[in-house]
Amino acid sequence: MEFTQLTLAITISIIISALLTAACLQSMKLIPDIKYPVNEYRSISGARGLAAFFVYVNHAPSMLTNMGYTVPGVSQWGWIYANLGSFGVQIFFCITGFLFFDRIIKCDGKLDWNRFYESRIRRIAPLFYFVCIIYLVIVFVSNMSLHIDKHDMLTISGLITFGFIDSSMTIGGFKLYPLNSVIWTLIHEWRFYFVLPLIAYTYCNKKYGMPLLVVAVAIAVVDFKNSAVVCWPYFLTGIVVAILANRKYNLSKTVKYLMAALALACFVVTSGIMVDNGYHWSRFILSSVFFACIVLANPFYMHFKPMRYLGEISYSVYLLHLPVLYLSIKAIGTFVDISNLSQNEYWLIMVMIAPVVVLVSSLSFRFIEYRYMKKK
């Protein structure tokens, strides 16, 4: 494993900066206090909040390279920043699989699918398309023109369809990758939503449900062996953990403490492990064990209110942190020479931008996301 004082200091300071900002905004009641019906899964919200800022930590140093800057010593912070990025995405996938299969279990597969897909569209689309408008505004300001050709139309089509239509993601020669390099995960989310009715049907069929789950695990093993980046098994992890959680095992305090400690151990190993592929089978095991322990043990350290606050705004953080990073670096670049920044100076800038991301995400949650949510 690889840990240095500097990489740990950078990562921890960014997370603390975000948590302190969340605590301040929470005391100001900037966003509504949402009452969730499944309070026994409070640790899920805390995990979601951390996952969102793990992705921020991932993109903080790589943003310079994506924007075309060459800053020696800044573009790489060691393995921890890359590991946390993939770890955050994997936890998001596990949470998705868990929450929706948990719902299927509780209603015995009898979901109102029209209402389900309407709620998913209302939850995901408004903010996503708002952020796409931000992309177009940045392109227009950068190029001062919008001469649209067929390649640009293909990119716009790709944005409208959440990335399902493959394109170069360029408009007028402007590469959108520094702004939207996270949207590839939405494709996997929508694919899971599309197959969820089949999963529900399989679950209700007691004769074939368990054998098909075993087959899915076998396919996952083969896929990890033959594919470079494998994402769908993380939804499978969520499904398996949902099944275990609904068995209502009466775990002793000692077992829960041991599971909480195991979750922390998995996190430490994941953060410092040196692997070329963040979606390798070994990472899948670490992420899956971490997620299972967090849900089943429900450790107290995941109930920290600022973490749960970040969990509420995590979708906004996920989509908006890249535009905020991009615009912030552009603005700072008008006053200082970005290429001459030292690692410590750039680190300080990233710590200062983190509260901006939390504030902007809080506002987008309150005025965009929350308007379309139907949580009681």
TrEMBL record:
Residues 43-363 form the Acyltransferase domain. Pfam families: Acyl_transf_3. InterPro entries: Acyl_transf_3_dom, Acyltransferase_3. It comes from the Bacteria. Keywords: Acyltransferase, Membrane, Transferase, Transmembrane, Transmembrane helix. The keyword Transport does not apply. One of its GO terms (molecular function) is acyltransferase activity. The chain crosses the membrane at residues 6-25, 46-64, 84-105, 126-148, 154-174, 212-245, 257-275, 281-301, 313-335, 347-368. This is Acyltransferase. It comes from Serratia rhizosphaerae.
